Records
---
Amino acid sequence: MLSEEVKAFLNKRFDNLIDPVTLVFRKGKKEIDTDIERLLIEISNASSKISINIQEDLECIDLPCISIESNGKDFGIRFMGKPDKGEFKTFIDTIVMVSRKEYDLSERTEELLKQLDQQVDIKVFITNSCGWCPPAVLKTYSFAMASDFIKATAIDCYIFSDLAVKYNVATVPKIVINEKVEQIGLKDENQLLGNILASVS
């Protein structure tokens, strides 16, 4: 499935891993499930620090769904779909982020997130051909890494078209926070933080 060039990229990228990472995969009943599992196996083969765990009880909005975890900790990071094409590098970057516990948020944002005392659910609707989706996904994943109260799920609009219709997705990335605050397009960190805080006010 993966070319030798991509495998070489993975080998080099995964040299930076620190803590072991587990790709927790919960299958659904879609034809793409098998392709996703094969892709995850190939990714895991690129590093001894990456393993796969097929689970039946992973909490997800819909299936198939992937969680990227480390040392038994679920960071609230979910990917619904097949992490390929435009989302492949995003998925790999997330593995490295989880392994190294290095996410891209300012100190000010981290301090404000400490005030959270309510659950925050972030849905990021994407397509794997969208140029603005990868940075939007990585930013929401960073928020999930920074706070145990935040869960961020990237949702492929083509695979989960019923959800895309339900949430009136016409342009991606579209972010829905706690079912009450929406933002469309790639916004800066302060705007996303403001929307997160507004969703729990």
---
Amino acid sequence: MKSIYAAFAALLLLAPSPVLAEDAVPQSQGQIDLTFAPLVKAAAPAVVNIYTRTVIKERQASPFFDDPFFRQFFGDQFKSGQPKERVQGSLGSGVIVRTDGLIVTNNHVIEGADQIRVVLNDKREFEAKVIAAEERLDLALLKVETKGEALPVLTLRDSDELDVGDLVLAIGNPFGVGQTVTSGIVSGVARTNTGIGDFGYFIQTDAAINPGNSGGALISTDGKLIGIPTAIFSKTGGSVGIGFAIPSNMVAAVIKAEGNGGKLVRPWIGAAGEAVTNDIAQSLGLARPVGVVVQQLYADGPAENAGIKPGDIIVGVNGREVEDPEGLRFRLATLPVGENATLNLIRKGAAIDLPVALIAPPDQPAPGETLLSGRQPLSGALIVNLSPATADELNIGAWEGVAIAKIKRGSIADRIGFEAGDLIVKINDHEITSAADLANLMDETPAPWSITVNRGGKVKTFNLD
């Protein structure tokens, strides 16, 4: 490692002042032999290839089986034809993070797999089992049986230490060609609003990342893991130099909580708001738009009990800057429930710090899941009572009320245009207070219907006959 840094330092010394071409020749063997080889040799053994097999049951049928006239004579028993099994394979990458065979990868690499096989850099193969899967974070933990043999590991680095411009290497198995190493720089940190999942906060890099790299390693020049490559922006499916990795601090939180079969619980403080825009920043006299302006507080929740008030601007957690609501969620998610965090605030132009308790989101009232059916507009919608816990699970920006959790594809509710996440506010002149009341109301109310929903803060009314 020292030779790499020495070579970089030597190269940098050549850059400050213009020189003639004949004066710019390498001055030492170190400048000529600049290489990442020692770094790769140390890190590559802990990066694995992951192969999955999924058995998919399909039904072969003639299009006539969906014709009502045809079914008059032959009935519904032939509608879907005979089942046929098809094996689907996929590939990805993973990183060994514990000598006893604990491996971290992306959830989308192993989701739904019936068999998972891990192949090490030295060609050894292991069957793996899933011990944790976080769909919203797109992280999963696998375990292989090593029979007491210690496996090579990558140590996690604090991803908050990264700066734009830092050199990084991506190691994975793109397109199944075998373990491949690419280099680049950190193009951005704290990337949010990327449209990747519903819990997005990423490191951006121009190191080439392609299909198969998912779940692999993004390492810094000290040989430590700083991210798990998970997605790219591309119109062709190949790398165009815009790749995203889940920061190692989020990975560390999942490993700590679920590495031994536990469950990650994301802390909740009972405060919600919106990102500070340029207009808001100017109206408040801020030098630049940054942070989250608090708009809503949960009664007797941690934030309210800590003394936080509507209009306060959360600009940091434990001294780490927060740029928007997604950034605040990330900062809190990397911290353990049961401890306190220091929220860095701006209140009326003054900076203040307030300690706030980190608790699990309250789970009352009970969800009361109810699948609506029959000839009515919400038929096919699964409705639930909201609590902070249910709202967090469904990623709905409200703590109370009745919401649509899921909608059956092709159902009446789906065809009308209702969506998962809709809050059912009112039916005709009736305010909705619980899932049970909503179900009873739909059973008892004949057409016409006027159904008002709140969709992402916008009110929409469906008038139906």
---
Amino acid sequence: MTVRLRPHHLLCMLTFIGKGYTEAFTENYVRIAVRLSAGEDILVVEGPDDICAPMLGEAGSHCLCETVTERDLRARRAVEALLGMPAGPGASIRPDAEFLATMREAFSAGAIRNGCVRCEWSPLCTGIAASGFDGVLVVPPGG
């Protein structure tokens, strides 16, 4: 199987520790973290993805807001510049140890944080990165 992620969730998954908007959102995200840690590939999509799914039934879901779309574009550009490969809709990414290490190093250094602008979770993620990503749920397969 493949996990469908929008570009800014390529950043969010680096620091996910089991906290989220709602209980349903968090439970869904934990299941996705398990799948990614088991080695499932990522298919980058435009707009709402597998992580967004529990939020889509809510009125005014932020997953559909223009600010989130802008976050996707900024994250996409940052990840593409870092990795030298496509990170937009249709791109396939393997979340292996090398990918996660490269992304986490760049995240810690602030090099790919453009996609985090105006995100309410940014302070939490900054703290997680500062801790060396202690307690994150997306880990390299077999890690």
---
Amino acid sequence: MSNCCKTNDSISETNKSENCPNCKVAGKKVKIITLKSMLKPTKLDSLSADLDHYFCAVNDCEVVYFDTEQKSYTKSDIKVPVYQKDTSLEVPVCYCFDWTKEKITQFVEKGLTPNPIEHIRENIKENRCGCEVNNPQSSCCLGNVTKFINQLS
């Protein structure tokens, strides 16, 4: 498994975009391994693994993934709640190390330790992250964690 949090391998490949068939906003290209790990088993048989797939981060759009032929997968087709599309406090912001909105909020408001950013960075340094298979957006969560903390501050 590649270490998505340390390098930007194939950045031009992963930054390609297509527009979501539902909300018409450009999605971010994701690796097929992400869909294989995120889709419910009942949806895997409709996956066209040879096509490019994209992640839709628009919070009020039901579509999570779509492909170049406009086949889409919605929130109900995904095994986990999607941070960008779920307002509950239990939703993970960091899927690899279980940093939920609630745990991060407790850190910010009550000064509880460990610091989520430092904790995640320590684990990245030890090559423990698996964002390609754990995070629905198929990329490192540090940007989401930092943004969420800044919104609380």
